[in-house]
Structures are given as C-alpha cells and as structure tokens.
Amino acid sequence: MKIEYNHKKIEEKWKKKWEKTGIYKVDDKNDKPKYYILDMFPYPSGEGLHVGHPKGYIATDIFARMKMMQGFNVLHPMGWDAFGLPAENYAIKNKVHPKLATDKNVATYKRQLEMLGFSYDWEREINTTDPEFYKWTQWIFLKMFERGLAYESNEPINWCPSCKTGLANEDLEDGRCERCGSEIERVPMRQWVLKITDYADRLLNDIDKLEDWEESIKEQQRNWIGRSEGARVNFQHRDGTENIEVFTTRPDTLFGATYMVLAPEHKLVSTLTTKEQKKTVQEYIKNAAKKSNLERTELQKEKTGVFTGAYAINPVSGKEIPIWIADYVLAGYGTGAIMSVPAHDERDWEFAKKYGLDIVEVVLGGEDVDQEAFCGEGTNVNSGFLNTLETADAKEKMFKWLEEKKRGEKAVNYKLEDWVFSRQRYWGEPIPLVHCAKCGVVPVPEKELPVVLPDVENYEPTGTGESPLAAIEEWVNTKCPKCLGEAKRETNTMPQWAGSSWYYLRYIDPKNDKELVSKEKESYWSPVDFYVGGAEHATRHLIYARFWHKFLFDIGAVAYDEPFKRLQHVGLIQGEDNRKMSKRWGNVINPDEIVDAHGADSMRVYEMFMGPFSQAASWSTNGLVGARKFIEKSISITEKVTEEESSEEIKNLLHKTIKKVAEDIEDFKFNTAISQMMILVNKITEIGSVNKKDYLLFISVLAPFAPHICEEIREKLGETVSVFESDWPKYDPELIIDKKINLVIQVNGKLRETIEVEADIQEEEAKKIATENETIQKWIEGKEIVKTIFVKGKLVNIVVK
RNA sequence: GCCCGGGUGGUGAAAUUGGUAUACACGAGAGACUUAAAAUCUCUUGGCCGCAAGGCCGUGCGGGUUCAAGUCCCGCCCCGGGCACCA
Length: 801
Known about the structure:
This protein is an alpha/beta fold. Helices cover 35% and strands 20% of the residues.
C-alpha cells in the first residue's frame, strides 16, 4: 500500500468529510464525562493571523482530540473579541462601519483557523459585537449597577490629544497612546467605575484554591492585588480645621514622622495651601498634571515637591510638622497622602535631605540615619510609650493607642484600584443607563436590552471627549424609564475587556435570550476545565474575568466561584530574527503560505515540536521540514504493514510511545511526545515491517497532532470509522517492561563500562559482575575498595582509595 | 531596585527530578542510487590529545555538599518577561 502525500487534496477531503458527518458537534449532555477546554479568543485584526497566533489553538486542539478519544464529551469552542479601537480607527480612516471591517476580519480569521483543521463546533461561535451577545454584557453591568458596584466618578483620566479619546491605564505604553504614540495628558472626565476593590480579598484569597494554575501567574496576581496591612492615621491641621488621613505599614515609626506629603490631586491641596505659597503650589501642580503616572514614577533620579505653607500635628509626639506636595505620592494609592519618616524610609530620606527636613531616628538597628535610611526592624527609641519595644510589639501597641484615642485604626490597603469601565468611543457596548433630570441615573429596564449601538455618520471623536454617540440626537434623547419624562442616554461605551470577562459562559448556551446561561447547562459544563492563552493576560483579563465570575456567583447566575480550573500560558513564536513578529520588522510569516506549501499537519506538528510550550521560540521554516519529513516517514510505513506480529522491540517501543504521548499531551509537553513518536517511526523503518494493528495504534496517537493524514491512512488501510470516534489506545503494562538493561559501572563516580544485564539484577550479583569485569579491574587494581553503591536498574559505583 | 522565568553542541532542544549529559530534530560532511540534479537511504558530527586502543576536559562563572551535581546549597555574571517612588 502506497499513499501519495498530496497534502492539499487530503486535507481538503477530510475537512469536508468532518463537516458533513458533524463529528465535532457538541452535545449539551450525554452519558460521557464533560471536559471544557478553552482558548483565549482572538481579536480579529486586519492583518490576519501570523504563524504564531495558532500555537495555543493547535495545543488545545490536540488536547481536545485526545480527550474525545478518551471518552469525554468535549467542549472546545471559538469566537471573536471584536470590539476595540483598531476597528474604530479603520472606520474613521475609511468612513466605513466598523462592523464591516470586523466582519471581514472575522471571515479571514475563520478561514485561516479552519485551514488548520481545528475541531471547533462552529455552531457555538460567538462574537462580542453581536447585539444578542452584548445584551448580556449589558445585563451583567446592570446587575452590578443595581448592587452598587458601578459608580460615576469625575477623575483625571489619560487623554490622548491626537485620538481625542480617553484611555485607561491598560491602553498606555510608556506614557504614550498605545495606538498613535502621542504623549498623553491628564484631563478630568466623567467615568463609570466598577468597584473591583470590594472583591480584592476574595480575589486574593481564592488564588490559593487554583491548584492547577501555574505558580508564576498566581504570584503575578497576588502582586497585582497587592495587599498590605498597616494603619490609617489621622493628622490634624495645627489650627484644628482639617483632618488628613494617611495609610502606613509602619505605625511603629509614627514618632519619627517629621513631615507629610500629599499627592498633587489630593482634595485638600487648595484648602491647605497658604496665600503666600499659592502661586508656587499651583505652578507645581500644573506641571505634575501634565505627566502620566508612569512618567511621574519613571523620573527616579530626583523627587520634586513644594511646601504648602501649612502644618499638621503629629498625633503622638504633638509636634508641628510641615505639609508638602509631591508627585511621587500617587492619588490612587492608599489615601493619596503619606506621613514621612525619613529616618526609616528611603524615599522620605531622599526628599528630606533635598529640602532640609528633620530626620529623627525612632528604630535602632541601622547605621547613622543621617547618612542612610534604615528600613529594617529593631528597637524603638525617641518614641514615648513605644520605647524599648521591638517592631512587632510596637505596632500592636500603636494600634491600641490609635483606637483608644480615636486617631486611627488597623487597616488593610490594596494596590488594586477600581476599574475605570467607560470609554468615550463608538465601537463598544453602550452602557445601558439613562440620565434623567428628575430621577437621576436610571437603569434601562432589562426587557429593553440590548441597547443597540446605533449607526452613525461620523466615527470621528467629538473632540470634547464625549463618545461619537453623543452626536446622535435621536438616539441620545429618550424617555426616563421611571418618570417617562425627557431623558438622555449614557453615551459612554464599555472597554474591550467587558465582553471577554464572561464570554466563556456564552459558549455553554450560545443562543439563549431568556437568561445569561441556563442553570442546567451551566451546572453541566462549568467550570472551564482548562484555559490556555497568552501570559500578557496574567493580571488584567484574568482578574477581570475572575471578578465578574465571582459577582455572577453572588447573584446566583453560576454555580462555582472560580471560572477556570486549570490555566496554562503559551510562549510567543517570534520571527526568524528572534524579534516579535510584526509588520514593523517585516518578519511576519503567513500561515496561508506555510499550509499551502507544507500542509496544515506539518505546521501543527512543527509548532508543537519547536520547544517547550510555554517558552518563547523563534520560527524556522527549515525546522518545519523536519516535521514534514516525520509525517512522510510515518506515511511510508503503510508499505511495511503486515499481518504478522511485530517484533518484540517494536511492540515494546510502541507501548512505551502510547504511554508517553498520553502523559505528555496531558502535561502540555508536546515536543517530547513527538520525539518519542519519531523514535518509534525510525525503528519501524529500520526493522522494515510492522503489524497492521500495531501501526494503527500508532496512527491513533499521532492523529491529534496530524488529524488529516491519519484519517487518510486509516481509510486506506480499510478503517471506516473516524479515528476521533474510536478509542484512545491503552498501553500494555507487560509490554513496556524492559527485560535487559545497560548496567552502568562507575569507579569513583566516573563511567568506565556499561554491561547488558537482566533488568531485575540484584545487588550482590551486580556488584560481583562489576568488580570482576576486565575493564573495571584495571581501574581498581591495587586499590582499596572503600564502598560500593548499587542503584537498582541503573548502576554500580565502586569507590576506591 | 523587586518578583518570576531562563543560560546545555553550529542551531531548536532532551535528560525518568541527584544516577550513562547532549535523546529527537535542523544544519553540516561523507557515501549509495542517478548520465546528472533533486528526492530518498546509510554513516559521521561537543572540544582537545592519540595511528589506534583509549584518555582528559565539558551543561554561563567561582566555590561547596555528595560515592555521584545540568539537577541541591552559597556568591556572582548575562538574557527574557512582569512590576515599579505602593507609603
């Protein structure tokens, strides 16, 4: 039997066949155990896919196919995260509806994914820009609004003067607009904000429940949430007019607080500033306001600040301390104000030195605090009732004092900030709220969802910062759902993160328009068993999705409080020049060309063979040739198939391969699974014949990697059932036992001889063989044997002196 | 600066978690087939010394633990990713 490997013909044939027989169609329930494996869905950009994009999808496809064969009811869906700025910019430039561009891009992506032979059930395809989908994104927002988790806030935001839109921190790159590169400004804007901080503790604590997540990603999330324990302390203005609240992790150093610093945005800045200082302070604030947080924090060399002219009273020492303003203090963290303890904090020390502020040592343990800050723990001095106490005890005593005197309390603080959830853009989900002069902010009634994004003439930003929606009067003007009076719609839209925060639930029940997801289907499919995607989403997307999921759990919409059971991140595929694949470097490899020239199966095998899955790897079309050769070699074995039994050697290797491939796929170690299959194929080629059934077992484990050709081989050999509807092979434990082993003999830890022996050789005999061996004799002759070590099934080490 | 990865042949990498370092693949070289080339097949391919048998060295660098270290410990250097004046 000879098979001519025309990959184009074969791959097309099997794609058609799979579609016709519908073998990837997913049942909502059957008697098999379920397995839900999910890819992070792509943003369909205008460029189409490059060869790096599908790496994760290939891996999940292999995994899904194995699970199918192992008897699981597998859900492995795909969809589109299609709202976002590129489509909007494209619309502005070309005066076409972003929907048209999006549809076109989706079509390209879909064609390219289908080309690679993935086992998606396209009947479950979703698109975040579909009103039937975003109806539920809006619904979730409404529920959050109802529960007080969404609030309006008029805060300074990042403003791109060129795109004329507001940008969240997530859309910035080095203080510049991620899209157009312009330097951003800080401009106040009315925003909708989600109170993710209400969930900070749960988001943090439940990380410990995520046993099957990579430790590095969990650590990144912990750092992102950034919980710290300390105290909130009230400082009073010396004339008793104002209270300034600070957060500190070192309440034990309170006696050493010799000045205070407010963020330039702090609400008390103008109240506190004295007449004399007004001008200098305003000047300073103006400059600070121009800078983004990133820029402010990047100027590491020197901190700048300005004195307000005001003084506060240190609550424990009673001393008057000056109040300063400095932009290294961030408005969004803690209370936006700090107490400065220059003797025991490096930044405060630097600042105090620069502006000639007092440095008072209150913790013993360092060198000279006039030369260097001491940030460690030690014994308190110059600290009144804390003197002689060690740091931990001093903290405790201070907590008690603060509470007794009502000057503060124990407090927990998070780095995590509330989520600015509105964008002044067109191409996003409208926020389903109405502004009524009489009733205030009123939610759109559930039965009126979705609030559909209207068509507009002009996608250009308004320039005022408002969304282009604000210009569509017939859409903006509406009736208040409460009093039926004149009202206006909210014109802000949601950020791109909205749809991706819950989309995995939609796949479970993609057509439901009565509820978010049916209880029955949700309890069957949830949670996602395995989630695979880019490491760049370790903190943002994955924290947002966990937040939304916990909220949905709280309102009874889902049955588990964590959405993703196992998480694996995929390493980038870089260009052949070791740089990120991008148009800019001209190093983009198009999968269309690769598949056309070498076939989808070769590309799949190659990408999995490149190296460890989570590690970055550089593309090499040369390397791809190896994958192609392996497939051709596997095919050519069809000419060596017989009815006779395979040799012992082949049987042993085959069953080892079956075992290893299953284990390696489970662990996402595809590269070593493929190596093992190559070893088997080389051996069969060398020996020159193999039993047909044995060969088919090999084809079954190869099939998830190279589905098209494996189907073809099976058909040519007379099999009538798709390999993906047949059983995953089981290895025979008897056959993988090695009867003979190479016993390694070392002298003083150095390899001197290997001898083939029975695998179950016992210590005494092994030692005897070793010492009597001729080569070994030469090494131990005339020397004293100190001891002999025997490792079962491995080696003998003779230690001589 | 902090946190998380990583450093192994000409190249991508493997190593059962302390037990034969370099599996598998690419590339390179030689040979077979061919009028020739391609394809395919076979062999060689870490370095040094040696005609050979064989020996010595060798997993970023320097120490250490151990019968035995790519793997563990201590101290450095470099590369990648993330966070960054976090009070």
